[in-house]
Amino acid sequence: MRSLQLIYEDKNQFDTFLLENSFDYESDCLVRIYVSNHSKEEAVEVSKAIKNLLPNSRIIGCSANGVIFHGKQYESDILVVIEKHEKTNIIKGKVVFENKTTLEIANEIKQNIEEENIALMHILIGNQWTQAGIFLDDMNTVNPGIKLAGGIAGNNMNQDVISFVFDEYEAFEAGLIYAGYSNDDLKIFTMANISHEPISSVYTINEAKDTYLETIEGVPATDWCFEQFGLRRLKEYKKWQQIAEDDELVKFPLIIENSHGLSRFIHYDSTLNKMSLYSSTLPSNTKFRIGYVSPTRCVKECHDICKEVSKHSIESLFCYTCVFRKLYLENCADWELKPFANCNISGAFMLGEIGWNHDRNSLYNGSCCYVGLAENESYFLPDFSVFDNLFHVNTDDDKLLNFVLKKQSLAMTEMNQQLLDKLLVQQEKSKSQLYLDTLTGLANTLKYDIDKSKYGFDKMCMIQIENSNLLVSRFGQEGYHQILKEGIKCILDDNELKNNSRKFYCYALNDTTILVTAAAEVSDEEFMTFIEYLFERYHTMEFNEFPEILINRFILVQDDKELLEKGIIALKECQYLQSHFINYSEVDMSSSESLQKEQDMLNILNYALNHDGIIPYFQGIYDNENKQVAKYEALMRVRDAAGNIYVPSDFMEIAKKYHLYTRLSMIMIGKVLELFEGTGLDVALNLSAYDINYKTVNNFIIEKLSKMKDCSNFVFEILEDESFKDISMLQSFLEKVRKFKVRIAIDDFGIGYSNFISIAQIAPDFIKIDGGIVRNIKKDVIYRKVLENIVFLGKQLDAKIVAEYVEDETIQEEVEKYDIHYSQGYYFARPVPFEMINFESFSCSVKS
Q: How far is CA 297 from CA 304, 339, 367, 396, 683, in A?
């Protein structure tokens, strides 16, 4: 799939954006539009303009309290998200609420989608619909298993516009609009950052009607709130900014019991002198706790989400977040998006968020709900450096505590004092949890960063379990973690470490490595002596409960400002060194620069995948009999934001390492097939074991071929590779594509295992001789003998021979002596983009 986002200005700017990104105007696509501080008429006008340019698009949209574009917040702009899918069918629908129950609405949606297997649905709700929570319960019953993402549409910041939803035909308030994704193999990621900490005992809403809370704990809800929060008076605020700045109640959500952290916010309705919920309802007898909005909890949850994002395949990442979050948690709402800025995250501020919560869809309030999806293997790497200095967010806790202290001075009851005490305890608990590695019980790297500034660490030893993989395979993950805990306990219980606890500090890096650090006042000699002591005692560890031993490697880093960063590089570089005690100065650290280059290339690949930067180049293949360029080979190139072009040797290993290869390959294959379909010109495409062994790519190719009238001009070049020693899967694939008259070539023949029997089973139409052989036929008789044998094999198999890397006239003269059918190389043609191919002339053209 392909996802594009932009801040919309006008139709001309949008048209230019599509052209710059080489977007196919006729393609089927889903367009989602989020407008902030715009009227219904303006929203429909934008939708019509987009529909005019993208006639096959399906459009849904809603009003919002602001939008997020590539990790940044925008107050009064229009966000447009375009998704073009390869294997997903989009079902769009809308429902008007008038005279319908929530169950009837859920059933109406079911009837519209029942022919499709919907995996995910974006659903946008207008009119600040208070029945949204009940509707979601009905959706869970009527349409089980469908994951929903979306929310209650926002309005403008003055609250003088009713929220609405829209498409290219109309905008309406009392209704909803949705888009469902039908794809059995769609990969979906959902997670929410709630950030609310409970600080009270459990209370009960005895009576509730619609959005209004009548009684809590047997007394009128207004009296209960007045007493619990020490309020001088109850007041209604009309504008969001006023609510955030002046309404004390918005600081304390009601956390619903047994709902995995779901919360609701309350406010005072002066017209009826009642307490009311924002855009939602709760049934009578609902149990809850008073909570508070915790920045430290927000940090921890955001960090956990980053770790999960890095593990999941995601091609498009979006968030529905609450307007409250932007207003009362302003600094968190800003930085919690920053780790995903390089993932091009976009989003919208809503009045209530819909997300998947522990196997069911739920209505959130004051949360940030993330939804990611992917059709192919693709991984984002969040920017974890954002968390380096986040201990500064504690100032928000201080503001909150100051507010509570102020209120207590006005109305200090016994219960209020208990509430304050619990708030203080919970705050400290949250901070301690934030800096704790839950597996080992040690402080984590967030705490290390803070302590490093405090104590001035300038030396470190990383203790890494070398045989962790073997232990996991032997005892399973839980068994290994038990061994890890036993090992760490032994080290922490060591008397030398205990007696020097103010000199040496321990932290957990991950589940294989711990850190031992020391401050500048500890001399290098003293630190080395202590680490040598630990090494002598703990470089191997045995336990009575387990028959296996722990084998630990000690890596020492000293006198460096970037201790942790350098230590991590050392871990990578020294993994093959035959020593269990390694000093950082003994390790060749030249690869730190290469690691940065690897990260840079990963960023380039992600940019190219999201901005149509996968470019096919084509190199002419010369017919030695007819004396002209008669065929082409397609070669992948990647283009970065500056227009620089990269060849596979620059990026292919990194693409495979970070699971991006499949996406690159499918885009490349799709473009080449599309460009040469119906031209009658022969073109060769490279396919690797990755492509043929992976079911998704395999099916993608067959599906593309099945939609073409004539595929006889396509040649699939199969790399002679160790991955095809089990040749049955390859033969099955070749049998399928040959039904479409596709021809087969063996690429780089002569460098692999050269199993002639397997090659005979493949029965190729072409054999391409590896360039390493061709380059040396003039210099070495052995290479000439190899070449003679390949030519002989080709004749026996009735396969045409292609000589690669023909770079000059002398090599071409040698090639012609062996009656080789085709020559390919810079002597005849350099790779060029499709638009630079001269299709009118196939005569040989030697390029310098």
A: 11, 16, 12, 12, 57
Sign of the torsion formed by the C-alpha atoms of 748, 752, 758 and 760: positive
Q: Are strands 316-322 and 368-374 parallel, antiparallel or unpaired?
A: antiparallel
CA dihedral 420, 421, 427, 433 (to 10 degrees): -150
φ and ψ at 251, to 5 degrees? -80, -15
Which pLDDT score is estimated for 469? 79
Asked if residue 786 lies in contact with residue 773, where contact means CB atoms within 8 angstroms, the answer is yes
If phi > 0 it is left, if psi is from -120 to 50 it is alpha, else beta; for residue 319 that is beta
Mean pLDDT of the chain: 85
pLDDT in the model for residue 422: 61
Q: What are phi and psi of 830, to 5 degrees?
A: -95, 155
List the structure tokens of 642.
């500056």
Cα distances from 140 to residues 108, 616, 840, in angstroms, run 14, 46, 61
Cα 333 from chain centroid (whole Å): 19
CB-based contacts of 544: which residues, under 8 Å, 6+ apart?
A: none
What is the β-pairing status of strands 513-519 and 457-465? antiparallel
Write the burial class of residue 642 (CB in 10 Å: 0-12 exposed, 13-18 middle, 19+ buried): exposed
In angstroms, the CA 664 to CA 661 distance is 5
pLDDT digit string, tens, across residues 725-772? 557 778 889 999 999 999 999 888 875 545 566 677 788 999 999 888
The residue length of the chain stands at 848
Secondary-structure breakdown of the chain: helix, strand, coil percentages, each rounded to the nearest 5:
40, 30, 30
Q: Are 394 and 431 in contact (CB under 8 A)?
A: yes
Q: What percent of the chain has pLDDT over 90?
A: 45
What is the end-to-end Cα distance of the chain in Å, rounded? 39
pTM: 0.59
Nearest to 537 by CA among 580, 494, 574: 494
